[in-house]
């Protein structure tokens, strides 16, 4: 095994382990099985970790610190699904297995008009182990999309950018359908900066390239080019810079051995020129608010499982004073808001042991002419949560006692 082949193997193992850690159910078991097979020594096979096939440059948000530079695009576009299919077919000729194929690389995949056809095509490819995409959770899923995602290969990453109602509805649909997903909350972004040259030395470029996860797992494919990362691809499309060092070209007419060599060469780079226009992997990173919208303040809400968020909304609509108190609590930086305390409890417990008692408590305080401050509200939620936990512990103890008898 050459040094490049060793790097690719290690990245493939990392990709499987990552899926094991963030997934559940079918995807988790499948990822574990594949990793164990690779660990056992599946010699002679050419396995690659990940390629991302760009679908659209459109997005529902205009994030201030967008790594993919989506707000910089004035004319948006969609890559045709036939183009994606040709690229996939060609690249798969050069490998025996691809751990993950992703529709993304910037933009909102659920705005891509041919997303379902692309997903179905990727899932149908035997050499592809998993099919992924990341969404900002602002768009509802229709039945056709849910049917396409109802597959042991499919996995969705949902980002928490404070659009609570939309994201909650999307997650409820996924849960009811049994679709495997991960909800990324409490994120911190690194400010990649404006796409302008910074005159970094080769040593700096090399260090940041090695420090960047995107160069490992976000090789972006657009038509007949494989870019070092999503930002590199976007900057080329925007005309920010042009350097053939940062991409590898392939052709449908290339024989399988040549395609394999091209794929390997994507992982045989020490740096990317794009790193001179990016601070994402800086050794001195600057952290910024994730999903920040210009001129808007996003809620710090964290998703509440199933229907609980709708109960909170109804409760809030009935009591404007509670709205103000909750908002003050949510806006407090570096502090988990009170709803996060009940995230782990199922719907029926949340509804009957937290929502209703909270409503009664609030009403009693109001009738007594007492004001409600943030600390009291948070304390009350903790008390209710602890009651649930204590009841659960009691049930387990009683069950264990009966089994012993």
Which features does this protein show?
405 residues; alpha/beta; 2 domains; eight-stranded mixed sheet; two-stranded antiparallel sheet; 10 strands; 12% strand; globular
Descriptive account of the structure:
The protein contains 14 helices and ten strands. With 405 residues, it is of the alpha/beta class. It has two domains: 275 residues, TIM Barrel; 97 residues, no CATH class. The strands form two sheets. Strands 5-4-3-2-1-7-8-9 form an eight-stranded mixed beta sheet. The longest helix has 31 residues. The protein starts with a helix and ends with a helix. About 8% of the residues have low confidence.
In short:
The protein is α/β, with parallel strands linked by helices and 405 residues long.
User: Whole-number radius of gyration?
Assistant: 24 Å
Low-confidence stretches: 300-310, 329-350
By DSSP (H or I, 4+ residues per run), the number of helices equals: 14
* CATH architecture descriptor text of the largest domain: Alpha-Beta Barrel
Spatial strand order of the main sheet: 5-4-3-2-1-7-8-9
Return the average pLDDT rounded to an integer. 82
* Count of the separate structural domains: 2
